[in-house]
Design goal:
The complex is a heterodimer of chains A (about 110) and B (about 110). Chain A has no helices and 11 strands. Chain A has about 110 residues and is mostly beta strands. The N and C termini of chain A lie far apart (about 40 Å). Helix content of chain B is about 0%, strand content about 50%. Chain B is built from no helices and 11 strands. In chain B, the strands form 2 sheets. In chain B, strands 2, 4, 5, 6, 9, 10 and 11 form a 7-stranded mixed beta sheet that branches. In chain B, strands 1-3-8-7 form a 4-stranded antiparallel beta sheet, with no helix packed on it. The chains are: A mainly beta (about 110), B mainly beta (about 110). At the A-B interface, β5, β9 and β10 of A face β5 and β10 of B.
């Protein structure tokens, strides 16, 4: 059974801290791994990762994929209160009819 | 435990056909959401139910899209007279209440030829 695990499930930090969110997966026919930020309604797409070892960066956020060890991390530096959200990791598969497997999310709370 | 399930998982439709996509939320979950996700992009909100009431349908792209949840559990997203631009993955999510901690289904990949 395909599975995506995220850790920690919940995290409370203060503004200015750096956080690392983890996502590990066990799926057949991996296609890509995606990170989302979810506040209200639709999750906001952050990154799509398909190749190992290539860091993707957007402002204070960065992410990297390790296809050998089957995990990804999402780093947020100099956190701000606006970073408070649930961060979802999802793996897209090539399995017939099985498109996305979502992790449970990490709830990040950034205190002023 | 049982998560959100969707069927069919994969659908190919000829342009002009009607399709119906089904979502079975987690039992007891009050809120149900539909999203459309085009290739390489994030999910776009379509519509939201609280029990059987459709509280927000602002994301439905045209009047060809219709969603219902008549008994407050299973939901169906219907697309009439499908067009090629409707090709996408349609994701369903449910939550116990409110907008947070949504649990996503595996999606239905619709391809319109």
């Amino acid at each position: 059974e395909d599975k995506v695990v995220q850790s920690p499930l919940s995290l409370v930090v203060h503004e200015g801290d750096t956080v690392t969110l983890n996502c590990s997966y066990e799926v057949t026919n991996f296609r890509s791994l995606l990170w989302y930020k979810q506040e209200k309604k639709a999750p906001t797409f952050l990154f799509m990762l398909t190749s190992s070892g290539i860091e993707k960066k957007s402002g204070r956020l960065s992410s990297i994929l390790d296809k050998k060890e089957l995990f990804s991390i999402l780093n947020i530096t100099a956190t701000q209160t606006g970073d408070s959200a649930v961060y979802l990791c999802a793996v897209e598969t090539d399995n017939y009819g099985q498109n996305f497997v979502f992790g449970p999310g990490t709830r990040l709370s950034v205190l002023p | 435990g049982a998560g959100v399930s969707q069927s069919p998982r994969y659908k190919v439709a000829k342009r002009g056909q009607d399709v119906a996509l089904r979502c079975d939320p987690i039992s007891g979950h009050v809120s149900l959401f539909w999203y459309q996700q085009a290739l390489g992009q994030g999910p776009e909100f379509l519509t939201y139910f609280q029990n059987e009431a459709q509280l927000d349908k602002s994301g439905l792209p045209s009047d060809r899209f219709f969603a219902e949840r008549p008994e407050g559990s299973v939901s169906t997203l219907k697309i009439q007279r499908t067009q090629q631009e409707d090709s996408a993955v349609y994701l369903c999510a449910s939550s116990l209440s409110g907008y947070h901690e949504q649990y996503f289904g595996p999606g239905t990949r619709l391809t319109v030829t």
